Amino acid sequence: MRLSYPSNIKVIQVPCTGRVDILHLLNAIENGADGVYVAGCLEGECHYLTGNIKTRKKVNYVKRVLQEIGIEPERVAMFNLSSAMGLRFAEIAREMDEKIKALGPTPVRKKEAA
Amino acid sequence: MIVADRKSLEEILSMVKDYKNILILGCKGCVTVCNVGGVKEVEILASALRIARQKEENEINIDTNVIERQCDNEYVAQIKDSVGNYEAVVSMACGVGPQFLSEAYREQKFYPAVNTTFFGGAVAHGIWEERCAGCGTCIIHDFDGLCPVARCAKSLLHGPCGGSSKGKCEISKETTCIWDSIVSKKMEQGRLNDLLKVRAVKDWRTARDGGPRRSIREELTK
Q1: Contact A26 B52 (CB under 8 A)
Q2: Which of B97, B145, B147, B167 is within CB 3.0–4.6 Å of B180 for a Cys-Cys bond?
Q3: Is there a contact between B180 and B146 (Cβ–Cβ < 8 Å)?
Q4: If DSSP codes are grouped into helix, strand and coil, which group holds residue B26?
């Protein structure tokens, strides 16, 4: 398909979104990521039955943590799409890239990085 | 088990606002089972606090550790070599933990990261409910294993009050009227007459009313 999506997005593969943990998302933010999103299978079509449903709850937990700290919760998001939806994958990547660019850089910067 | 809820980040952040080097200490006992103060929750709290402090450009060093139980001195002693390396220690154990720690290490400051709520169990994944009030004189055999002391909002011992409606307590639609459950169970078993038993007034001296309690098993003491 040779679709392009923003090059600033780093893809980390997991066997199922159920493997994604609250800590993975928090660590990404802690280490300076401007945003992080999870691309899971369509709801009801998880190969492991409920991995994507569980992770949606974890994503919502991280959003609440960020809100409590005073960081925009939109920096963390979850999307659902199937592996056959390449066009949608590229579209989501662009959407997220635009949203994060509109929010600006993360306020979480380590001193040495500043 | 003892059930607890984590305090808000705002409250914990205000506790540690003056420190730049702290330890978060979890417990592998009850708070691990109710997912509030075990290995994972300790790391989540540490990460959230670090993010908050980095945002304020006031970085904090946070080390983490989880011991077997904070309610036993032999485990509390395991941190004796490292406890002095920090300005303060945040305990994620129930209310017992910070007290055992405070008694063992008089020179250190300990802060609780959780609100200890009740003795209970998991009724569904992620949902815990109170089952025991620790009154010190168990009488649930008279009520077919259901405790009106812990589960009736008024701890009534002789039947439901006027606030019982369709099996629910007037305090909340989520709360079962335990007296409705007790009477239903007795009726199912054809033993409703059991409830006619006249009982002596409950002795509350074994509960908190008698002051802090102590349990001694002579065969184990040295």
Answers
A1: no
A2: B167
A3: no
A4: strand
Residue with tokens 């409910």: B129
- What residues have CB less than 8 Å from B195, skipping those under 6 apart? B159, B182, B183, B186
What does residue B63 show for φ and ψ, rounded to 5 degrees? -100, 155
- Chain B residue numbers with beta carbons less than 8 Å from the beta carbon of A30 are 47, 50-51, 54
**pLDDT one-digit tens code per residue, A62-104:** 999 999 999 999 999 999 999 899 999 999 999 999 999 999 9
Yes or no: say if B213 and B135 are a contact pair by the CB < 8 Å rule: no
Helix-helix angle A51-69:B39-55, to 10 degrees: 40
Other beta carbons within 10 angstroms of residue A73's beta carbon come to 16
Q: Which residues of A touch B59 (CB under 8 A)?
A: 110-111
**Do residues B148 and B135 lie in contact, with contact meaning Cβ atoms separated by under 8 Å?**
no
Contact B44 A26 (CB under 8 A): yes
**pLDDT tens digits for range B59-79:** 999 999 999 999 999 999 999
The token pair that represents B160 in the structure block: 């439901």
Query: Percentages helix, strand, coil for chain B, rounded to the nearest 5?
Result: 35, 25, 40
Selected for mutation to probe chain B from A30, A50, A61, A67 (highest B CB count within 10 Å) is A30
Q: Which residues contact B197 (CB under 8 A, 6 or more apart)?
A: B142
Query: In this structure, what DSSP letter does residue B218 have?
Result: G
| Residue ranges covered by each domain of chain B | 2-117, 133-206
